[in-house]
Write a structure and sequence with these properties.
Elements lengths: L1 E9 L16 H13 L6 E2 L8 E11 L8 H6 L6 E3 L4 E3 L11 E9 L13 E2 L7 H11 L1 E4 L14 E12 L2 E8 L6 H14 L6 H8 L14 E7 L7
Parallel strand pairs: 3-11, 6-7
Antiparallel strand pairs: 1-3, 1-4, 1-5, 2-3, 6-10, 6-11, 8-9, 9-10
Helix pairs in contact: 3-4
Length: 252
């Protein structure tokens, strides 16, 4: 049995998220169907993490075990020919050790939340960024607030409660706000993210930019460990999973 790792990008606009669910129409469902067509066998994939409906990815990673003898360099093209245009394998596949697990082997992940600050929304990016036309956001205050989210914290205030999470402690290695033309991009790299954590951080930072929450209040929100203290959950379509890092063994 071989263990194959692949990296994909997808436009999540018309899907109900990455992870399979009773309602169907997920990225995982589509990929597993394509793999079955390709190999002739039912194949279960393991993703590096779930993304919600309308959330996108530039570097989602998954792995699967298979008895297929397809050459590793052929997997990407073979699978792409069976996937819809809004889901694409973006790197040559790799055969990895049997104990590699796309989720549990990950060392860090990077997410981006995009905000359009132009008066009029860019029609070509409407599905990939949140539109905030006015009033102007205070970028300096948002950057200060971002710094307070860096480091190891209990992020209970920044997650929708889930009983399956044993701990809400996570480490944010870097947090950055980039301004480009009419867009603000918020980046977070961390060792893991709780359910809705990035979207709640984004919604809170938007309120900081609006002057509704002071940047210094971020520390109090963290220490309070209460979801009601933080801002709203930002809309899903502004969020993109940018990269998943597996450390030195990730790429040759």
């Amino acid at each position: 049995m071989r263990n194959i790792r692949m990296k994909i990008a997808y436009d999540g606009t018309r899907y109900n998220g990455f992870q399979t669910q009773p309602g169907g129409n997920t990225i995982q469902d589509v990929i597993e169907s394509a793999l079955e067509t390709l190999t002739g066998a039912r194949t279960r994939i393991v993703g590096s993490g779930r993304t919600d409906a309308r959330v996108h990815a530039e570097g989602q990673v998954f792995n699967f075990h298979t008895e297929s003898r397809i050459a590793v360099e052929r997997w990407a093209l073979a699978l792409n020919s069976r996937l819809p245009e809004d889901i694409r394998v973006v790197e040559t596949a790799a055969e990895v050790p049997d104990d590699f697990h796309a989720r549990f082997s990950a060392k860090r992940k990077t997410y981006r939340y995009s905000i359009c600050i132009g008066k009029f929304h860019d029609v070509f990016r409407r599905n990939f960024e949140f539109h905030h036309p006015s009033p102007k956001l205070d970028v300096d205050a948002m950057r200060e607030a971002l710094l307070r989210l860096q480091g190891e914290h209990d992020f209970t205030s920044f997650t929708t409660n889930h009983a399956d999470e044993k701990s809400h402690v996570r480490t944010i290695y870097s947090a950055e706000l980039r301004v480009e033309d009419r867009r603000l991009d918020l980046y977070w790299t961390g060792n893991g993210f709780l359910y809705n954590m990035v979207r709640i951080m984004a919604g809170t930072l938007i309120q900081v930019g609006q002057g509704k929450i002071g940047e210094a209040a971020i520390s109090d929100i963290l220490h309070g460990r209460n979801r009601l203290l933080a801002g709203p959950t930002a809309v899903a379509h502004g969020l993109t999973l940018v990269d998943v890092d597996y450390g030195e063994s990730d790429e040759e």
